[in-house]
Amino acid sequence: MSGFSNSPRVVKGGIVTLDPDTSVVQGVIALQYNPDTLSRSLQIQSTPGGQDGVRVDALRLRGPAIETFKLEAELDATDQLEFPNKFPVAAQYGLHPQLAQLEMLINPTVETLQSDDAMANAGALEIIPLEQPLTLFVWSVSRVVPVRLTEFSVTEEAFDPSLNPIRAKVSLGMRVLSVDDLGFEHPGGRMYMNYLANKEQLATRAGSAAISALGLGGLP
């Protein structure tokens, strides 16, 4: 904590998991340190070009752009290990709990797997694919968006005498789930619409430059 009373409170980025049916919060993961960079890409959903001489309107969009995020989160238990009585979990397990919490975002629970196996052994003809909680990526109040994790890798960089990891980097890749993926009535679809509406509002705050700034006196 800073010694200056007027220092701004640092907001952490993170991930929230919700029940996909009730929207009840199941878990909140706050990143230990905010990454210095956040990579974003948007793939335009444009209308394909005409074939066999059929004219297609080149200005039409088929849907929202496909947006992806990539970041690298750093985890470090070194400071906690200096006070084992105050942080007994870190002293016993290092970063295992934090890493496991992130990894369970992409793994089904043991109970779910056992239930699925029991249905198969009972002769169920069709097993519905396992459904994970609705995952939200939160990066300030302006970016609260439903995502699917598409990339996940961990580099463990240091270990305690029991080989528990005490420093690690986690690389995450996420694909934004839009109404094309979830539908308008799904809780995640409604959250995406709020996310897109916020983009619209922010865009209006950017203002518009004069056309003369582009070296033009007018359009031909």
Strand content: 25-35%
**Major sheet:** 7 strands, antiparallel
- So how many helices? 6
> What class would the helix/strand composition place it in?
alpha+beta
Averaging pLDDT over every residue, what do you get? 89
Q: What is the tally of beta strands? A: 7
User: Could you list the spans in which at least 5 consecutive residues all have pLDDT below 50?
Assistant: none
Could you tell me how far the N terminus lies from the C terminus, measured between alpha carbons in angstroms?
59 Å
Helix residue percentage = 10-25%
Strand arrangement across the biggest beta sheet? 2-1-5-6-7-4-3
Q: What is the ordering of alpha helices and beta strands?
A: EEEEHHHHEEEHH
What is this entry, summarized?
By secondary structure, this protein is of the alpha+beta class. Helix content is 24%, strand content 27%.
Describe the structure.
- A seven-stranded antiparallel sheet has the order 2-1-5-6-7-4-3.
- The longest helix is centred in the C-terminal third of the chain and has 19 residues, at 187-205.
- It is built from six helices and seven strands; from the N terminus they run E-E-E-E-H-H-H-H-E-E-E-H-H.
- The chain is 24% helix and 27% strand.
- The relative contact order is 0.16.
- Strand 5 (134-138) and strand 6 (144-159) form a beta hairpin.
- With 220 residues, it is α+β, with helices and mostly antiparallel strands.
- It has a domain at 13-41 and 62-108 and 136-197.
